[in-house]
């Protein structure tokens, strides 16, 4: 048993027999604690550096006491409700891994819809100027910047901690055509040397109403409240973004916004009232209204 284990890439060679634990033993203990199997494998993989395939094919791999302790702390935090993305420090979006911290909203697959719609709208424009307001981890701005290397992308956030996460992700993923500005919505651009008129403005702003019970449930309890809710009716920031957009959009430029499943009609009304043309709403994979937008007419 020990001889077999010593052939495996165990991180600590001088384990005393009492402190020996293996992947299989650790996973069994986590299962008894009530942690779902997938989450247990993700945490063990994260702490040991073993891939999820290796957890199956090398389940006699030795785990030393310090790593076992780290795994049990992560498991306890998970069982207390902390989101997996914060425990692992990362989440996938559009096929790439983004670093996330509790300073930013956890990337949602729903937001891929906004990115796809945005890329469609700038398909025929050369070197488009793009603005992503309230960028958080930077998923929208960075995915657009990487899909369109000719684009000049600006990412803003009112939180310096969030902007640091976004810039770290931009650097790690090689989005060199992205710049950042700190501040509230269009106010962030006041001091920055940003273009006056953008071809595309996108945002996934805080749109959950203060009274929405979801704020007290699941992952949302651990996410920054300022990234989730406007502490109002859910439309306050959406309204501010729509109202300010015509002044910062080029002729025929597009504004695209993510919003709640029940806000499509309200956002279309805001866009129409602000003079936008071609106003539309698109549905996410679950069939919910998730993203609305419009074009600033040429004249
Ligand atoms: N889509 C997120 C949720 O419903 C909210 C994101 C946001 O407010 N921008 O959990």
TrEMBL record:
InterPro entries: DNA_methylase_N6_adenine_CS (IPR002052), HemK-like (IPR004556), N5-glutamine_MTase (IPR050320), PrmC_N (IPR040758), RF_methyltr_PrmC (IPR019874), SAM-dependent_MTases_sf (IPR029063), Small_mtfrase_dom (IPR007848). Residues 120-212 form the Methyltransferase small domain. Substrate binds at residues 204-207. The keyword Signal does not apply. The keyword Transferase applies. It is an enzyme of class 2 (transferase). It catalyses: L-glutaminyl-[peptide chain release factor] + S-adenosyl-L-methionine = N(5)-methyl-L-glutaminyl-[peptide chain release factor] + S-adenosyl-L-homocysteine + H(+). Belongs to the protein N5-glutamine methyltransferase family. PrmC subfamily. This is Release factor glutamine methyltransferase.
């Amino acid at each position: 048993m020990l001889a077999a284990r010593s052939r495996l890439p165990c991180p600590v060679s001088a384990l005393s027999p009492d402190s020996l634990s293996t992947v299989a033993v650790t996973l069994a203990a986590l299962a008894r604690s009530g942690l779902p199997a997938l989450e247990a494998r993700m945490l063990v993989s994260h702490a040991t550096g073993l891939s999820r395939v290796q957890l199956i094919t090398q389940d006699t791999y030795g785990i030393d006491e310090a790593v076992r302790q780290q795994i049990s702390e992560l498991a306890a935090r998970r069982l207390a409700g902390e989101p997996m993305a914060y425990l692992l420090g990362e989440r996938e979006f559009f096929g790439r891994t983004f670093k996330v911290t509790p300073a930013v909203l956890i990337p949602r697959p729903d937001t891929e819809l906004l990115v796809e719609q945005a890329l469609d709208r700038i398909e025929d424009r050369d070197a488009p100027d793009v603005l992503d307001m309230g960028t958080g981890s930077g998923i929208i701005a960075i995915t657009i910047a990487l899909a369109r290397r000719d684009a000049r992308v600006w990412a803003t956030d009112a939180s310096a901690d969030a902007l640091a996460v976004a810039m770290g992700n931009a650097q790690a993923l090689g989005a060199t055509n992205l710049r950042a500005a700190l501040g509230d919505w269009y106010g962030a651009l006041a001091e920055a040397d940003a273009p006056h008129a953008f071809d595309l403005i996108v945002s996934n702003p805080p749109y959950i109403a203060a009274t929405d019970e979801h704020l007290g449930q699941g992952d949302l309890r651990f996410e920054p409240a300022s990234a989730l809710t406007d502490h109002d009716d859910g439309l306050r920031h959406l309204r501010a973004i729509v109202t300010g957009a015509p002044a910062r959009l080029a002729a025929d430029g597009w504004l695209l916004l993510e919003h709640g499943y029940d806000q499509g009609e309200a956002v279309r009304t805001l866009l129409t009232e602000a003079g936008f043309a071609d106003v539309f709403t698109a549905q996410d994979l679950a069939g919910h209204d998730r993203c609305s937008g419009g074009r600033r007419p040429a004249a």
